[in-house]
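Dear all,

This email documents one entry for the complex benchmark we are building for the journal club exercise. For each entry we list the sequence lines for every component of the assembly. Then comes the predicted three-dimensional structure of the complex as a token string, followed by one or two observations. Please use this as the template for your own entries, and keep the labels exactly as they appear.
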Amino acid sequence: MTATADSATLTQSDNPTLINATSLSKHYGKTVALDQISVELPHASIGLLGPNGAGKSTFLKLMLGLSAQTSGDLMVFGRDVQENPMEIRRRIGYMPESDCLAMDTTAFDFVRHMGEVSGLPSNDARLRAADMLYLCGLDEERYRMIREFSTGMKQRVKLAQALVHDPDLVFLDEPTNGLDPSGHDEMLTLIRRIHDELGIAVVLSSHVLEDIERVCDYVMMIDSGRLVGAGYLSDLMDTRQEITLELDGDVESFSEGVRRRGFEVSGKNGMLAVVYQDDAVFDAIRDAAVDSGVAMRTLVTRRTSLEEFYIDVVEQHQADQEPV
Amino acid sequence: MTGSTAEHQEDNVQSTGEGQVYRRKYNRYAGSRQGRARSYGAVIFHSWRRALGIRRKWTSKILPIFLYVAAFVPVIGFIAVPAIIGVDGFEFEPYGLFSSLSLILLVFAAAASPEMLCDDRRENVLPLYYSRGMTRWDYLAAKLIALGSIMLSVSLLPALLLFLGNTFLQDQPFSYLGSNLDQFPKILATALLLSIFYAAIGLAVASMTERKGIASAILIGIFLAGTGIAEGLYQAIDSDWSQVFVLMAPGEIPEGLVQLIFGENVSGSLAVRSGIEPIWFLASIAGFVVLSALLLYRRYLRED
């Protein structure tokens, strides 16, 4: 399901609303960082998608209560962020995009300290820190100074500190930044586990569409501070399937036959793409092929990538914004 | 395998007869959460560790140790030497101690306040604090308590030790204690005010830069150059109102405060020679603290 421009609704009733924004705006002077965002996000692994400067980090900061919105309402766990910031923050973990680690301390001491700051008793914070560093793959290295760590290891410490107090929701801001391919892959696997195995809702902010596609169930797209789409990835992708055909014979007649039956066709020289809407498209292709007498060499159903979908949605949004 | 919360779950333990094999996995945390007080405690303890070089490389411990030694060794000398050589009735008044302690407090503030603020800013740790159950106010208040308590340990404990030493050096200690009990609140008030004064200015200066060395240099510069300039202006301008420059000289504050609280002239300092009513030094401390608070508000509490 796609919720363009101003609203988004859920398709899975078993996931209660986690975050609810209503006409949410944030201005920095004359700069509009977020503009009238209204969206309901479910308890899921949520991808916050948009180019650099789209407003993703601002949205995260508003949800954390680190910054106040200019107008509109924002609820997290059913609570107003401005009225109950502390109650909400206690249930949230945050992994910022930028470096945020005390270099002159060990990974264990740092994560334990963050656990204590989150309100855990000293002994529990110590045990949780050891567990989280183990979970994030830093068991042996936990007593080394953070300044000696590689970028990938620092990202793991950042993730461990976000999880140490056992949050119900964790915000991850560009968690794969600066990672090599192997570290990148391991980080995404770890994030997927956080939601699937640990049951923690994840909001993953990224401009890397492949990361979102791999890790997230739900996606929210922002461009120039405006919501351009939101929905379950499976729903969004289902509506974007297309069927690729390789034909011999009167291709023009075939294309006309498919269009006459209500389906979009594009392509030339015997290679055609038919947009999938429902299974009736297969009947239309069969009937048009029979009528036009074409020989069908291949028929492949292909899912549109999130990147193609995102580009379509953003282009559509930008076209809507242009003055007539 | 080391201990973990996960290991305490029965379903994670397999008994093999001779030993136990633990399966380590993530479990939701079911223990207590102690709220904002715990957050304060964590930040205060962490700040103490940083400022005193605890769990850090040995070079970080040198200056704090040296300063504590410099604060306590003279006091121990004042007590031990008369005790050893058997001088009866010897007494070194605590108010005289504050004059030398103020220099140690300045160096301590210059060393400790950047440790408390600069690294957190430079390493961008602040969003992690603010995204937990801690406001900007909480963070700053915890830092002020941490630095203030360290300063208090340098200002109060040596003076109290000297007071107790004086007491037990007397032939009749309890009689001495009874007749000098009014010294105790005076010592406490002086130490407390000096600690707040140095901690507030130290944190305000440290909030202006991410570089610890620069923050230390600025703080010492403010005290040395500020005091020098203020004294110069006081001497140069022959007018009644030029006394105000003495109140603006941070290095003169401790002398003026001792004069106010103990009613004694420590030395021939400008604070004494200028003839200013000592109560004005209290107003001067309040002014420096308010100015520091405004700077901290601008640097930390004003959002966006």
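Observations: The CA atoms of residues 243 and 301 of chain A lie 4 Å apart. The radius of gyration of chain A is 24 Å.
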